[in-house]
Amino acid sequence: MNSSDEFAGLLSVNCVAFPLMETFTISRGSKDEAETVCVTLSTPNGIGRGECVPYARYGETVSSVAGHIESLADTIERGLSRARLQQLLPPGAARNAVDCALWDLQAKAGASDFTSRLKPLETAFTLSYDSEERMGARARREAMRPILKIKFGSPDDLGRLRAVRHSAPDSKLIIDANEAWTLEQFLQMAPHFERYQVDVVEQPLRAGHDEGLKAGQFRFALCADESCHDRASLPGILGKYDMINIKLDKTGGLTEALHLKRAAIKQGLKIMVGCMVSSSLSMAPAFILAQDADFVDLDGPLLLKEDQPYPIRFERSLMHPPQSQLWG
User: How would you class 183 by CB atoms within 10 Å of its CB: exposed for 0-12, middle for 13-18, buried for 19 or more?
Assistant: First the structure.
């Protein structure tokens, strides 16, 4: 698809909070709803939509992201392409929502059939951070899922790992510390990760303080999340990580995400495609990116009480391609 295709129309920005099935906790905090910013571009060729999740870790708020998007209103009325958008906004949530809305417009205008070739995907399912007993019980309920992602965040996480592995002996495991450990704590835990056959350990150390990591050192893959946003991040993670977690809210949309994916594969990195906790509208463009990923982590809608109209259909952990009424 040509990123120089230009669309002119009216911009609408809507902030939507989706209540969660239960409190979602990671090492840096808890939440009971997913706060999103939704973009609608109305043009003579149709309507394009995109969604993003402002993230405080990256200095974003709902109001700041909505403001950055609204600053493009006049430009969009005159005409905006995806190529030009990359120059107007930096990587991040605001650019993501607009970029994905432009992709949606191109599909609606018949400029591409990229959604017609999509295959179902098997996604990880996330267990949020909790007590050893509760995480073990939750893992028992979800033990039939092929991939579980476990949120960790303290020096005493070994008991939680033991409880989850005992409750879900056959599931592949991804551990996500969200930058919570020191290098010493991670190295103390690493033999146990191998013992309990963990497949991936994601972002064990704080971004910018991960010099002690070395790719290929363990029987599990080290995955960069907060340390990798877009192609400009790649030089800083090479040699430290075996894999990157690509999220559209970090790259600033599907356009840069596809470039990042190709560049990372050329450097020998494996690919995980992930998401913030958000609706099916966020998952739909990420579904394209995830088609041949090594790991897929697009379970956001499974954590919500309510979703968008025409949501992505899940059969347990199997995701089906989005309907055109949703996106694409």
Answer: middle
Residues of the chain with pLDDT under 70: 1-2, 4, 111-113
CB 284 within 8 A of CB 256: no
- Of 151, 214, 240, 305, which residue is the catalytic one? 151
- The pLDDT assigned to 2 comes to 65
Residue 36, SS3? strand
Q: How many CB atoms lie within 10 A of CB 90?
A: 12
Q: Is 247 a catalytic residue?
A: yes
Domains of the chain, CATH where assigned: 6-115 (3.30.390.10), 117-319 (3.20.20.120)
- What's the confidence (pLDDT) of residue 116? 73
Distance from the Cα of residue 91 to its chain's centroid: 14
pLDDT at 111: 62
Residue 112 has a pLDDT of 65
Q: What is the pLDDT of residue 134?
A: 96
Residue type at position 325: Q
**C-alpha closest to that of 322 among 78, 50, 109:** 50
Coil vs helix vs strand at 305: coil
Q: What are the C-alpha distances in Å from 24 to residues 88, 236, 264?
A: 34, 30, 30
CA neighbours within 13 Å on the CB side: how many for 175?
Answer: 30
pTM for this predicted structure: 0.96
- Position 225, amino acid: D
- Predicted pLDDT of residue 109: 85
Residue pair 223/241 in contact by the 8 Å Cβ criterion: yes
Selecting among 247, 250, 261, 270, the annotated active-site residue is 247
Q: Which amino acid is at 104?
A: D
Q: What is the DSSP letter of 64?
A: H
Residues 6 or more apart whose Cβ sits within 8 Å of residue 292: none
151 is catalytic: yes
